């Protein structure tokens, strides 16, 4: 209950510590694992520039700008656009750059229910982009 309240209050550091303590005591605690993913995302996304989407649109091959924009888009509930932005970048990159974008995309998928239609479509589109 305390960890959830800390998260709701936006105290990401305290919430991270509380959920990590839960996970340390119970390594299979799915709620704590999910909460830690949410906390990591929220702390990263809320620290992005407010104009991150415009910056990325102006420089479509800038990986860091695209990752920041996708975070902001997810935060603003523009999920499909965020997924599509990164999938398009996967298609245009290779090697370590491609892996970096793919890894972030999978992290973003994990923020949602695996059966969510946007996630299902995103995973399918990612698979098509990779192969």
TrEMBL record:
<dbReference type="InterPro" id="IPR011990">
    <property type="entry name" value="TPR-like_helical_dom_sf"/>
</dbReference>
<protein>
    <submittedName>
        <fullName>Co-chaperone YbbN</fullName>
    </submittedName>
</protein>
<dbReference type="Pfam" id="PF14561">
    <property type="entry name" value="TPR_20"/>
</dbReference>
């Amino acid at each position: 209950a305390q960890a959830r309240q800390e998260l709701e209050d936006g105290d990401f550091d305290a919430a991270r510590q509380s959920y990590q303590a839960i996970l340390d005591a119970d390594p299979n605690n799915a709620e704590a694992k999910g909460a830690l993913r949410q906390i990591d995302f929220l702390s990263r996304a809320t620290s992005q520039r407010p104009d991150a989407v415009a910056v990325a649109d102006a420089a479509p091959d800038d990986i860091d700008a695209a990752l920041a924009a996708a975070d902001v888009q997810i935060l603003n509930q523009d999920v499909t656009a965020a997924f599509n932005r990164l999938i398009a970048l996967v298609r245009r990159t290779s090697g370590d750059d491609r892996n970096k974008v793919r890894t972030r995309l999978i992290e973003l998928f994990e923020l949602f229910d695996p059966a969510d239609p946007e996630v299902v479509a995103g995973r399918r589109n990612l698979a098509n982009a990779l192969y």
